[in-house]
Amino acid sequence: MFGGQVALARQSAITNLVNSQEKFDTPATSLWKHVYLKKLRDALESLKGCMTRRNKDDVKETIAMVEALAVQLTQREGKLIQEKLEVKKLATFLKQASENRPFYRKKQMSRASG
């Protein structure tokens, strides 16, 4: 019985972890990150028109950095989605394993007594 409670607690912890990650990494949060990067890029583009040659180069470099950040953000989001799927699969597997384990023990006990 104690082993079943441990498995249930483990399953509950995994479920809580998945749910807590989903609260912070929502599509809306991701969208806002992209919106802010776009607004920053647009502001830098408009600023570039007001600058002298040397400062224009600095602004161009900064715009390139913002674009690189947008690419990194997209890549990280892709990895995060993959990790979430893997965690959900693992949680499902552990849940099934913990549900099947008592059945397996009962089967072994009946063989031992019979």
Give a structural overview.
This protein has helices spanning 2-24, 27-48, 53-113. With 114 residues, it is mainly alpha-helical. Helix 1 packs antiparallel against helix 3 (53-113) and helix 2 packs antiparallel against helix 3 (53-113). It is built from three helices and no strands.
Element pattern in H and E: HHH
Number of alpha- plus pi-helical segments: 3
Radius of gyration: 26 Å
In helices, the fraction of residues equals over 70%
List the domain count as a whole number.
1
Termini Cα gap: 22 Å
The CATH level-2 architecture is identified as Up-down Bundle
CATH superfamily, called what? ATP synthase delta/epsilon subunit, C-terminal domain
The overall pLDDT, averaged over residues, is 75
Give start-end ranges of low-pLDDT stretches: none
Morphology? rod-shaped
The number of strands is: 0
Strand content: under 5%
Pfam families: SCAB_CC (PF16712)
InterPro entries: SCAB, SCAB_CC
GO molecular function, one term: actin binding
Protein name: Stomatal closure-related actin-binding protein coiled-coil domain-containing protein
